[in-house]
Amino acid sequence: MKISFKVFNLSNLKIAKQLPFKILIKRILKRIFPSKKIDYTLEDIRRSASNYTVNSLLNITDFKISSNPEIISCYLKHEFDLLGSGWVSRNSTRELNLADEHQFFSENLSQNIGGGYQLINWQLDVASGFSFRANKQFDDQIIDKSKNVDIKNCWELGRLQHLPQMAIAAITAENKEELIIEFKNQSIDFIVSNPIGMGVQWACAMDVGIRLANWLVAYDIFKQVDSTNILNDKFTLILTDAIYQHALFIYNHLEHKEGAAGNHYLFNLVGLLFATNYLSIKDETLEWRAFAEEEIEKEFEKQFFSDGGNFEGSTTYHCLSAEAMLYATALMLRNGKKLSKNYIDLLGKSAQFIKDVIKPNGEMPQFGDNDSGRLFKFLPESSLLNYESLLAGFSGLFGGKETTFVEQKIIEQISKNTKIVAPISLEKKKHQIRNAKHQLQKPTTTEIKFANDINTDEIKLYAYDEFGIYVFKSAQFYLAISTISNKKMHHSWGHVHNDKLSFDLQVNGIDMVKDPGTYTYSAFPDKRNEYRSSKAHHGIVVKGIDQNKEFGLVYLEREITCKVLEIKGLTITLQANYYGVEHTRKFTILDNQLIVTDYCNKPYKVNINKFEEYSPIYGVSQKRD
Predict the structure, then answer these.
(1) Measured between alpha carbons, how far is residue 403 from residues 63, 135, 165, 399 in Å?
(2) Which of 63, 119, 113, 131 is CA-nearest to residue 90?
(3) Are residues 168 and 93 in the same domain?
(4) Burial letters for 350-368: b for 16+ Cβ neighbours within 10 Å, e otherwise?
(5) Is 237 a member of any domain?
(6) Does residue 7 form part of some domain?
(7) Residue 354 has what DSSP assignment?
(8) Contact at 8 Å (CB) between 313 and 364?
(9) CA-CA distance, 315 to 312, in Å (whole number)?
(10) Is there a domain that residue 437 lies in?
(11) CA-CA-CA-CA torsion for 54, 60, 66, 70, nearest 10 degrees?
(12) What CATH number does the domain containing 456 carry?
C-alpha cells in the first residue's frame, strides 16, 4: 500500500457526498490540474545555507524545574516509551540506506557527531517491526498491510518531544554536559538520517511543525546552560539551516485541504510561527509570519464553535487544537498583533471548555478519538489525559494564580508577558428546559449505586450545546454525557465516535463508567471500528443498527441527531435519532445513586459497562477495570 494523504477519491461517492460543494469542486480541479510536485530525490536541499540566526525567547531563571532522572537516563540510551510501546531501544542496527543524491552530505555531516554515539532508527515502527525507507520520497513509501503497521509510532518519535524534557532537566542536572552533547548528537543524527522530504518523518507536515517547535524550545534552553560552548557556532549553523528547511517544507506542503482543514493545518501554522519568531527577520520569514497569523485567525473561527468547543467532535482533539491556538496566540502577541474581541473571547471560551469538562482529578473524558497528541510534553511522567498543565498555560495569557507548571512561564515569556482579558463572564448559563408532557414508555432502568453518599447541593451543570456535551460536576461527583452530533462539525466526522447518550461517571475519585478510548487508527482496522462503535460505549445497542455507519477508517455517515428534551434540577432527559431508531435516555442524580432510564422504539439492550476493553492512551488496549 502506498502512503496517501488525499482525502477525496473520485470513486468514493460517500466521501464526495459529505464534502461541501465548493470543496468538492476544488478537489476535482486539483486532480485535473495538479500542481507541480517537488522531487526531493533530485537534489539535497540540506546543502542550501539559510544565512539566518536564531533568537532566544525564553529565560530559564524563572522556571520551576521538574524532571525525572530515570526517564532522562532512558533518553540518553535512546530508549523511548511512546504510544504504549514500553521502554524500547530505538538504536539502529543497520547502516544508513539513503538515496545516492543524499549520501555524500550525510556522510560529511555525520563527522560532527561525537564518538561512541549510535544512530537512532527513525524509520522503524517498533510495534510491527516494519521499516520505512529513507531513500524513498515521503509520498512514495510502500506499507506492507499484512504487518499491522502504524505510521504514528514513527511520527511520535520524530516529534522530538523528549528534547525539551532533556533541556529542562539540564538546568539543574549534575550531568548537564552529557545532556547537551546528547542533544547535539541527536539533532545531527536526525538531520543526517532524514534528508528533507525523504522517508517517513516528512509524510505529515503537522508532525514537521511539532518537531520544529520542540527543537527550537529545547535549543533555547540548552543554549542557556551551555557554559562550555558545546553548541558552538558550527552546530548552530547546522541547526539553523535545518529549522529554515523545516519551515520551507511546511510552507510548501500545507495541509489546507482546499479549505476543509482540521487540526493538522493549525499545527502547520504554529510551526511557521515558531520558526519565524526564532529565526532572524528577513523578507521571507516576515511573509511566512504574516501568512500564518492571517490563516490562524480565519481557522480559529472555522474550527471552534461559538461556545468554545472544537469542531472535530472529540474532547481530546479539542484540547489538542486549543493548545495550538494558545501558543499561536502567544507568538502573535509577541509581535504586537492586535486581536479582535471575538478572537479573545473565543480563546477564553476554549480554555473554559477544558476547565468545565475535565474531571475533578484533571483528566478529560475520551468522547470521540484520542491519539494522545500534544504540541509539547514537558513533563515526561504526566498522564496524557490530564490537562491541568494546559490550563496553566492559558493562565500565562489570561492571568491567574501562580502554578508549578512550566507551561505558564513559557507562555508568559514567548508572549512578552502580554496579558489579555478573558470574557467578562465565563460561567455557563443555567439550563432549565421543562417539558411536563414528556414521558418514557416501557422504560428500562439501570441503578448505579455509590459506595458513599454525595452532597448533591454542590453539583453544577455545564452545558455546551453546540459541541454537544453536558457535565454535572462537583468535587465529589462527575457525570459527562455526549450528544456530539453538530452537522457543522468537520465534514468527515473522522474523529467522532458512536457515543451519543453515552456517559462518563466518576464518584469520589473513582471511575464507575468511563469511555473506552480509541486504541488504534490504521494498524488494526477491525479494532479501530470496534472502539468507535455503539457496542463499545455506554448507550444502548440495537441489533444491526449503529448510530452512524462507518466507511473506511476515518469517515462516518452523518446520520444521528440529538436533542435535550428536559432539564430539571439534577435530572436531564435527552433523545437520539438515527436510521429510524428513537432512543430516549433520562439521567437522575440522587445522593446515593445515578438512575439511568432508557426507552427505544426498537428492541434494544442497555450497554453500560459491557465492553471489556479500555484504552487509556493511543496504542494501548487492556481489560477494563
Answers:
(1) 11, 46, 18, 11
(2) 119
(3) yes
(4) bbbbbebbbbeebbbbbbb
(5) yes
(6) no
(7) H
(8) no
(9) 9
(10) no
(11) 50
(12) 2.70.98.70
What is the Cα Rg of the chain in Å? Answer: 25
Residue at 542 is within a domain: yes
Q: How many CA atoms lie within 13 A of 246 on its CB side?
A: 36
- Give the Cβ contact number of residue 171 at 10 Å: 17
- pTM, to two decimals: 0.94
Nearest CA to 621 out of 527, 522, 497 is that of 527
d(CA 451, CA 429): 31
Domain of 263, in residue numbers: 258-425
- pLDDT means over runs of 10, the chain (625 residues): 43 66 72 83 86 96 88 97 96 92 96 95 96 96 91 98 98 96 99 98 99 99 98 97 98 90 98 98 97 98 98 99 99 96 97 98 98 94 91 96 94 96 59 59 92 98 98 99 97 95 98 98 96 98 96 92 97 98 98 98 97 97 92
Same domain, 323 and 375: yes
Using the 8-state DSSP alphabet, how is residue 343 labeled?
H
CA distance 149 to 481: 34
Alpha-carbon separation of residue 377 from 67, 211, 218, 406, 592 (angstroms):
12, 12, 12, 11, 39
Q: What cell does 228 get?
A: 562550555
Contact 461, 333 (CB under 8 A): no
Q: Which residues contact 86 (CB under 8 A, 6 or more apart)?
A: none
Query: Which residue in this structure is represented by grid cell 509570519?
Result: 289
Q: Using CA atoms in the order 515, 516, 520, 521, what is the torsion angle rounded to 10 degrees?
A: -40
Q: What whole-number distance in Å separates Cα of residue 152 and Cα of residue 555?
A: 19
Which cell numbers in the block locate residue 624?
A: 477494563
390 and 325 in a common domain: yes
Cβ count within 10 A of residue 373: 24
Q: What is the pLDDT of residue 10?
A: 39
pLDDT at position 426: 46
- Any idea what the Cα angle at residue 474 is, between residues 315 and 485, rounded to 5°? 30
The three cell numbers locating residue 468? 454537544
**CA neighbor of 514 nearest in space, from 564, 475, 480:** 480
Torsion of CA 380, 385, 391, 393, to 10 degrees: 30
Query: Are residues 131 and 206 located together in one domain of the fold?
Result: yes
Strand 540-541, strand 510-513: pairing:
unpaired
CA distance 491 to 511: 33
Cβ(196)–Cβ(46) under 8 Å? yes
195/46 same-domain check: yes
Separation CA 499–CA 504 (nearest Å): 11
The tally of domains found in the chain comes to 3
* Contact by Cβ (8 Å): 346, 308: yes
Asked if residue 199 and residue 110 are part of one domain, the reply reads yes
